[in-house]
Amino acid sequence: MTPTIVGTTISVGVGDTFRIVGNSFYPGAVTMLWDNSINVNPAGSTANDTGYFNATFTVPGTGFGSHNITLIDSGLQKFVTFVTVVQSITISPTTGPIGTTVTVNGFGFPASGTPAGTVYNATITFGISATIRNGSLTDASGQFTTTFNVPSGSAGGANTVTATTNDTAATAASKTFTVSAAFTISPTEFYANSSNTEVTASGTGFDTTKSYFVAIDNLFSPFGNTTNGITPGQSGSSLGSISFRFIGVGFQPGLHVVSLYETTQTGGNNRPAANATFNVLADPVTSSAGVLAAINATVTTINNTTGTILTNLNAINATVIAINGNVATIRTDTGIIRTNVTTIAASITGISNGFATVQTSVGTLTTTVQSLGSTLSSVSGTVGTISTSVGSLSTDLSAINTKVTSIQNGVATIQTDLGTLQGTVTSTDGKVATIQTSIGTLQASVDDVQTTTEGIPGQVNVPIWIAVVLALIAAIAAIASLLLVRRKIAG
Hints:
The chain is mainly beta. The protein has five domains: 4-85, Macroglobulin (MG2) domain (Immunoglobulin-like, Sandwich); 88-179, Neocarzinostatin-like (Immunoglobulin-like, Sandwich), CATH 2.60.40; 182-281, Immunoglobulins (Immunoglobulin-like), CATH 2.60.40.10; 288-374, no CATH class; 402-466, no CATH class. It is built from three helices and 41 strands. The strands form ten sheets. Strands 35-34-33-40-39-38-37-36-41 form a nine-stranded mixed beta sheet, with no helix packed on it. A hairpin with a 5-residue loop joins β9 (65-72) and β10 (78-85). The longest helix is centred in the C-terminal third of the chain and has 29 residues, at 462-490. It starts with a strand and ends with a helix.
């Protein structure tokens, strides 16, 4: 049986989808060539056991007029059919918001230079207003490329892009561009209880044939007509635009969303069309963080206002109840305040048995040395310098319970309330040892310390003493034996 094909149309444009159906071909792959050179390689171009296939492909970029499609099956049979390419355009992208740059490629338009000296210009129009957006000269093949930006005031949804040349027939081709909605909130951030902050929600590119409900945090709001929704602008620069305002008050701190839902005329769920978010900040006056920031900002900005600030704290019976690092906790008649220790002029005045005394402008506090982020920064003899978040203090090492816990091979381990030190024993008299550490040289009692004295200057190992004694005893015994022998000889 002779192979046959059926095309769905004989006139196509570049970028169009073309369907081709074949019968009685050899089973297997069918190669399709456009103008004997371009392998269009369509999906479905494989003949089944009966020789049938149904394939589609996109018309490639080509010139105006008649073109051939050659089919070659697995039996190397060739079959040729013809189609006519008419003027056409492709656009990229095919959807986007207002401001999107669109590239237009034209094919099959009147060719400039035919007849000689003729020049053809393709004019691009967009949307229902058909306003000219750009133009481009065709080349010798009747093709052109140009771009334009989707203009403001464009209605959302489908808009027609048309290219028309200035020949006598006004050759034209069109494609559809879909304008998508863009929606914004301004300002995007404000404080809670900002009763004087006007927030504007606005959008463009909405479908003028539809109306939209407004919802904040997915709760439908009273903005506009809550029964029929908000209708986009219908003409001029406001075409397809939506705008409304509300006061930024009553919102909890955090992220919030304003949504627009496309209304349905036949019931059912409303379709989300666009949304935008805004962030509400904790009010600086009412939040504890705000109180802290206000105090610190005042102290930082005006150095001489400390007295005024302290008077205000005393007026609300402020008392320091804890310090942790550089943060002070203050109890007042109005609640708890946490602030930097410098705000209340905190200063360490003494240390005893692991506890520090801190003087502040709102009372005196006794707390552990560890809570002040204390470190032993240097030692000298029996005195140590301690650095804290509220200043430095030199004190006797016994105030932080300094104790030598062991000495092994000349290395001493020293325990304090602020941590453990290690150092090298440089000398000892059996009761007090001098120890060199990374932060200085200290002296400490070693009365109750388990120790090995190897490597300690001024000390001799016990085994050596025993050896010396035994050697002396042996020597004395040898002398005594010699004397005894001589007496016997003499007698």
